[in-house]
C-alpha cells in the first residue's frame, strides 16, 4: 500500500506538469503536501517538513549554482566561448569538424548552464555549417551531445550538484568519474552518430544567427580556456592532493577549505571577474549587471531544486524512503541500474532532466547506506537516466526543432535518438567503472 501511495504522489507530480501544464516548482509543492496527507504525516507537521526539505537542499547548493551561472555568463559575454570554439576549429579543420564541435560543447558546457550554452553555441554551429556548406544537424548534434552530457553528469550543473549533496558524495570524485564516462559518451552520441546525419535537411532561421565578435575583441586562448575550466582544475586538483598525499595541520585545513565546491566557485568567479572582466576593460557596473542577469536566468532552477528537496523530505519524515529501500532489496536488479531505470521513466513522463533526477534521489537515497553502492556512481547513474529520450514534453526538444528548423520526424530521429544514446552509453560507462571501484 505504501508503494502505491508513493507512486500515486509521483503520478500527481507528473500529471500536474504534463497535463495541467503547471510550473514544476508549484507542482512539487502540491505533490509534496499531497504526499504528506496520503502517507499519514500529521497535518501540523507537513508545512515544516516541506520547509525543512527546501532549506536543507538549497543550503548546500545556492552558492554552487549561482556562482556557476555567473561564471558561465561571463565566459559567454566576454567572447571567451567564441575564442574557444574558433581555436578548436582551427586545430581540427574541416575533416574533423564534428570532433571540434563536440570538444567545444564539452569545454564551454562545463561552466555554462544548458539553456545558456544552447543559445550561445548553436548559432556558432550554424555559422560553421554555412562556412563549410554542410548540414547544420551534422555539425550541431555533436555540440548538443556534449552540452547534454555536461548538464546531466558534471557538477556544478544543478542536478548532479544536488545529487552530490543528497547522497553525500564527493564532488571532486564525481567530477573525475564523470569525465571518464563523458569522453566515450560524447564521442559515440556526438561525432560518430553524426556520420549518419549528413543528409538531414535543416534550414536554420536567420533570427538565430550569432552575434560574432571581431577577432580583436576576443580574449586570448590561455585566458579563455583557463578561466572557463578553473572550477574543474580546482576540484580535481584538491581531490587528487587529498587522496594521494598526506597533509596535516594548516595545509590540510587550507586544502579542505579550497576543495569545498562553494569556495571553488567563488574563487573561480572572482578570478574570472578580473581575467575576463576588469582586465579586458569591462567596468564593475557592467560585470555586476551580467551577474544579476545570470541570477535571473537560474532563479526557477533553484526553486525546482528546492521543490524536489521538499518531496524528498516528506518521503523521509513519513518513513517511506526506508520502506521503499527495504522493498527494493528484494528486487533482482543492480542498484545502479534500478536508479537509472526509475530516473529514465520519470524523465520520459515529465520531460525535465532536473526534475527526473531529483525526484529519483528522494526515492533511492536509502540505497546509499543499505546497499553496497558508490554514491558518486549513483549520481552518474541517475544523471544518465535523466537524459533518456527527450520528446514532446521537453523544452529542449522544441528548442532544437525551432532553432534548426527541422521536421518533427527528423527531430525524433536526430535529437531524441542522440539523447537516448547518451543515457544508455552513460549507464554502460557507470557499470564498467563499478567493476573497478
Automatic annotation (TrEMBL):
<dbReference type="GO" id="GO:0005886">
    <property type="term" value="C:plasma membrane"/>
</dbReference>
<feature type="transmembrane region" description="Helical">
    <location>
        <begin position="225"/>
        <end position="245"/>
    </location>
</feature>
<feature type="transmembrane region" description="Helical">
    <location>
        <begin position="57"/>
        <end position="76"/>
    </location>
</feature>
<feature type="transmembrane region" description="Helical">
    <location>
        <begin position="134"/>
        <end position="154"/>
    </location>
</feature>
<feature type="transmembrane region" description="Helical">
    <location>
        <begin position="30"/>
        <end position="50"/>
    </location>
</feature>
<feature type="transmembrane region" description="Helical">
    <location>
        <begin position="174"/>
        <end position="194"/>
    </location>
</feature>
<keyword id="KW-1133">Transmembrane helix</keyword>
<dbReference type="GO" id="GO:0015128">
    <property type="term" value="F:gluconate transmembrane transporter activity"/>
</dbReference>
<feature type="transmembrane region" description="Helical">
    <location>
        <begin position="298"/>
        <end position="316"/>
    </location>
</feature>
<keyword id="KW-0813">Transport</keyword>
<protein>
    <submittedName>
        <fullName>Gnt-I system high-affinity gluconate transporter</fullName>
    </submittedName>
</protein>
<keyword id="KW-0812">Transmembrane</keyword>
<keyword id="KW-1003">Cell membrane</keyword>
<comment type="similarity">
    <text>Belongs to the GntP permease family.</text>
</comment>
<keyword id="KW-0472">Membrane</keyword>
<feature type="transmembrane region" description="Helical">
    <location>
        <begin position="96"/>
        <end position="122"/>
    </location>
</feature>
<feature type="transmembrane region" description="Helical">
    <location>
        <begin position="257"/>
        <end position="277"/>
    </location>
</feature>
<dbReference type="InterPro" id="IPR003474">
    <property type="entry name" value="Glcn_transporter"/>
</dbReference>
<dbReference type="Pfam" id="PF02447">
    <property type="entry name" value="GntP_permease"/>
</dbReference>
<feature type="transmembrane region" description="Helical">
    <location>
        <begin position="412"/>
        <end position="436"/>
    </location>
</feature>
<feature type="transmembrane region" description="Helical">
    <location>
        <begin position="336"/>
        <end position="365"/>
    </location>
</feature>
<feature type="transmembrane region" description="Helical">
    <location>
        <begin position="377"/>
        <end position="400"/>
    </location>
</feature>
Amino acid at each position: 500500500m505504501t508503494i502505491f501511495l508513493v507512486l500515486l504522489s509521483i503520478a500527481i507530480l507528473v500529471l500536474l506538469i504534463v497535463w495541467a501544464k503547471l510550473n514544476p516548482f508549484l507542482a512539487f509543492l502540491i505533490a509534496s503536501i499531497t504526499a504528506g496527507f496520503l502517507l499519514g504525516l500529521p497535518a501540523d507537521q507537513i508545512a515544516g517538513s516541506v520547509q525543512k526539505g527546501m532549506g536543507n537542499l538549497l543550503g548546500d547548493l545556492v552558492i554552487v549554482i549561482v556562482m556557476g551561472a555567473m561564471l558561465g555568463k561571463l565566459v559567454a559575454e566576454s567572447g571567451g566561448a567564441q575564442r574557444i570554439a574558433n581555436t578548436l576549429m582551427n586545430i581540427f579543420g574541416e575533416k574533423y569538424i564534428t570532433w571540434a564541435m563536440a570538444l567545444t560543447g564539452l569545454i564551454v558546457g562545463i561552466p555554462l548552464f544548458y539553456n545558456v550554452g544552447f543559445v550561445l553555441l548553436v548559432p556558432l554551429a550554424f555559422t560553421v555549417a554555412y562556412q563549410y556548406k554542410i548540414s547544420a544537424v551534422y555539425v550541431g548534434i555533436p555540440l548538443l551531445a556534449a552540452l547534454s552530457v555536461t548538464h546531466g553528469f558534471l557538477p556544478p550543473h544543478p542536478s548532479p550538484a544536488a545529487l552530490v549533496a543528497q547522497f553525500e558524495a564527493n564532488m571532486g570524485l564525481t567530477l573525475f568519474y564523470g569525465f571518464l564516462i563523458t569522453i566515450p559518451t560524447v564521442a559515440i552520441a556526438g561525432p560518430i552518430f553524426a556520420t549518419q546525419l549528413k543528409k538531414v535537411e535543416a534550414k536554420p532561421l536567420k533570427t538565430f544567427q550569432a552575434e560574432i565578435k571581431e577577432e580583436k575583441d576576443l580574449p586570448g586562448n590561455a585566458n579563455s580556456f583557463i578561466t572557463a575550466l578553473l572550477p574543474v582544475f580546482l576540484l580535481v586538483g584538491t581531490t587528487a592532493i587529498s587522496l594521494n598525499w598526506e597533509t596535516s595541520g594548516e595545509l590540510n585545513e587550507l586544502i579542505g577549505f579550497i576543495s569545498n565546491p562553494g569556495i571553488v566557485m567563488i574563487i573561480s568567479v572572482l578570478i574570472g571577474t578580473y581575467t575576463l572582466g576588469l582586465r579586458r576593460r569591462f567596468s564593475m557596473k557592467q560585470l555586476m549587471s551580467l551577474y544579476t542577469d545570470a541570477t535571473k536566468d537560474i532563479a526557477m532552477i533553484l526553486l525546482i531544486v528546492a521543490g524536489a528537496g521538499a518531496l524528498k523530505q516528506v518521503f523521509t519524515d513519513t518513513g517511506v524512503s526506508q520502506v521503499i529501500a527495504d522493498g527494493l532489496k528484494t528486487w533482482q536488479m543492480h542498484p545502479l541500474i534500478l536508479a537509472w531505470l526509475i530516473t529514465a521513466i520519470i524523465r520520459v513522463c515529465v520531460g525535465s532532466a532536473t526534475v527526473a533526477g531529483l525526484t529519483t534521489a528522494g526515492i533511492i537515497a536509502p540505497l546509499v547506506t543499505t546497499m553496497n553502492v558508490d554514491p558518486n556512481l549513483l549520481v552518474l547513474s541517475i544523471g544518465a537516466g535523466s537524459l533518456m529520450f527527450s520528446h514532446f514534453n521537453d523544452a529542449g526538444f522544441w528548442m532544437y526543432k525551432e532553432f534548426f528548423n527541422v521536421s518533427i520526424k527528423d527531430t525524433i530521429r536526430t535529437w531524441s535518438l542522440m539523447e537516448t544514446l547518451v543515457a544508455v552509453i552513460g549507464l554502460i560507462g557507470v557499470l564498467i567503472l563499478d567493476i573497478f571501484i
